[in-house]
């Protein structure tokens, strides 16, 4: 798959997720088979550029090319300026967010709210494409609501205006993350334009990845929530698409080493105090479906130092290693679940109620 001058090693992309896809997580996913990763969403308002959160999201040291930054806003001139600013600070691809359904984003007329205002959406795309010489990509949903789907019209506008690739989350703004994914709408988008199309939504297994590619004809797959606690899903999907064979789950020893390395990078990036707190959500996701995970989460959430957090993680995975050589997941996709109808309400409810979940996700 190609984005502008960049030929990606594969079409598996880490979705930008606020509070999740920081630099350590992006780098981990790339090491484990993702071909491309997009930064957490950065607001276009220049008054926010010197905040701690924005500075962290603009830190791309050590990342493999192409470095992609997602920007969000509702003012064409402000977004164009944000694109220039990020390119000056290392971005090699600019991604425009028109997919986030979060209320605080949509209330500012940004994110997926822009799908309800096609003239403004077109002005934003034109302004950003004209502002920078690097490739510009776009993330959208299928429309404002099931009654007003306009993904094909937005896609044609994007292609005509110079967008290099388009990612489509197969739900409307109104649907958020609940309900069946509209893979047929993504197929209609793919049939309507010639630029690369990336399918997004409920791609949670290698088998599902193959099904989605067949249903949509997409050039690539964007994976978000399924990579939380399972960053090795990228190598599993890549291997399955290449060979038709399933990789076994990681060994407990490998998972232990990967998670401890992730923690070390996370602490170094965020600092120990913030890093200890924000690591909790990752540790919750890593152990969500593993034996003794609930007890582990209660224990690790009570830890007050990074050293204690590390010791609890090491001890927990040592206990798992005594039970099995490989990770054993206690919950699975329901038998016979159809790719067109599998619902995600259960996932949404779990993440909403779990105390270790951090910030809301960007679409």
Description:
- This protein is α/β, with parallel strands linked by helices and 363 residues long.
- The protein contains 14 helices and eleven strands.
- The chain has a nine-stranded parallel sheet. Strands 1-2 form a two-stranded antiparallel ribbon.
- The longest helix is centred in the C-terminal third of the chain and has 19 residues.
- The radius of gyration is 20 Å and the shape is globular.
- The protein starts with a strand and ends in a 10-residue tail after the last helix.
Average pLDDT works out at 90
The shape is globular
Taking all Cα atoms into account, the compactness measure Rg is 20 Å
Question: Which spans have pLDDT < 50 for at least 5 consecutive residues?
Answer: 333-363
Helix content: 40-55%
Portion in beta strands: 5-15%
Widest sheet, order of strands: 4-3-11-10-9-8-7-6-5
Number of helices: 14
Order of helices and strands: EEEHEEHEHEHHEHEHEHEHHHHHH
Briefly say what this structure is.
This protein is of the alpha/beta class. It has 14 helices and 11 strands. It has helices spanning 23-31, 52-57, 76-88, 103-106, 118-131, 151-161, 183-192, 206-216, 233-243, 252-270, 272-286, 293-301, 306-323, 345-353; strands at 2-3, 6-7, 12-14, 36-37, 42-43, 68-72, 93-98, 136-141, 165-169, 197-200, 220-223.
């Amino acid at each position: 798959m190609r984005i502008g001058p960049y030929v990606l090693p594969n079409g598996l992309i880490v979705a930008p997720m606020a509070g999740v896809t920081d630099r350590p997580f992006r780098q981990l996913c790339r090491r484990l088979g993702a071909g491309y990763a997009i930064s957490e969403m950065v607001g276009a308002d220049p008054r926010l550029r010197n905040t701690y959160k924005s500075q962290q999201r603009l830190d791309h040291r050590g990342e493999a090319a192409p470095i992609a930054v997602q920007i969000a806003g509702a003012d064409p001139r402000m977004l164009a300026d944000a694109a220039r600013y990020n390119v000056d600070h290392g971005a090699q691809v600019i991604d425009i967010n028109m997919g986030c359904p979060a209320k605080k984003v949509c209330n500012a007329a940004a994110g997926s709210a822009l799908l309800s205002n096609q003239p403004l959406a077109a002005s934003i795309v034109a302004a950003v494409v004209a502002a920078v010489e690097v490739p510009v990509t776009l993330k959208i949903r299928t429309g404002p609501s099931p009654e007003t789907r306009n993904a094909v019209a937005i896609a044609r506008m994007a292609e005509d205006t110079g967008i290099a690739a388009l990612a489509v989350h197969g739900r409307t703004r109104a649907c958020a993350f609940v309900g069946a994914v509209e893979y047929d709408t993504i197929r209609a988008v793919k049939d309507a334009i010639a630029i690369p199309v990336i399918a997004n939504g409920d791609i949670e297994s290698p088998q599902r990845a193959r099904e989605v590619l067949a249903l949509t004809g997409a050039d690539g797959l964007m994976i978000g929530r399924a990579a939380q606690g399972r960053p090795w899903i990228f190598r599993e999907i890549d291997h399955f698409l290449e060979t038709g064979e399933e990789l076994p789950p990681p060994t407990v020893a490998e998972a232990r080493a990967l998670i401890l390395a992730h923690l070390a990078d996370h602490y170094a990036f965020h600092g120990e105090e913030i890093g200890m707190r924000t690591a909790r959500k990752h540790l919750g996701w890593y152990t969500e479906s593993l034996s003794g995970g609930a007890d582990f989460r209660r224990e690790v959430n009570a830890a007050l130092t990074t050293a204690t957090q590390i010791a609890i993680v090491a001890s927990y995975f040592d206990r798992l290693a005594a039970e099995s050589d490989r990770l054993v997941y206690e919950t699975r996709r329901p038998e016979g679940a159809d790719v067109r109808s599998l619902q995600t309400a259960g996932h949404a409810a779990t993440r909403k109620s779990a105390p270790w979940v951090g910030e809301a996700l960007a679409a």
